[in-house]
Amino acid sequence: xxxxxxxxxxxxxxxxxxxxxxxxxxxxxxxxxxxxxxxxxxxxxxxxxxxxxxxxxxxxxxxxxxxxxxxxxx
Length: 74
Hints:
This protein is of the alpha/beta class. 39% of the residues lie in helices and 22% in strands. The protein has a 3-stranded parallel sheet. The chain is globular, with a radius of gyration of 12 Å. The N and C termini lie far apart (28 Å).
C-alpha cells in the first residue's frame, strides 16, 4: 500500500512534531517546512496529498501560502 504524503508547515517545532505523531498513526508520510517560503520550494519538486499549515507565521502566512497553492503559482 502506498503511503499518503502530508506536508506540515509551522514555525513551531513542537506543533510540527505533535502533528507528525498523529499523522503517522494514520499511515501518512510526513514532510516539514518551517515557513511558507520553504513550503513553496518543497512543492516545486514534490507532491503531497494534504497540507497542514499554521495561519500565523513570520514572512509568508499560512493564508498567503494557501492562496499561492490554490492559484497554481507554484
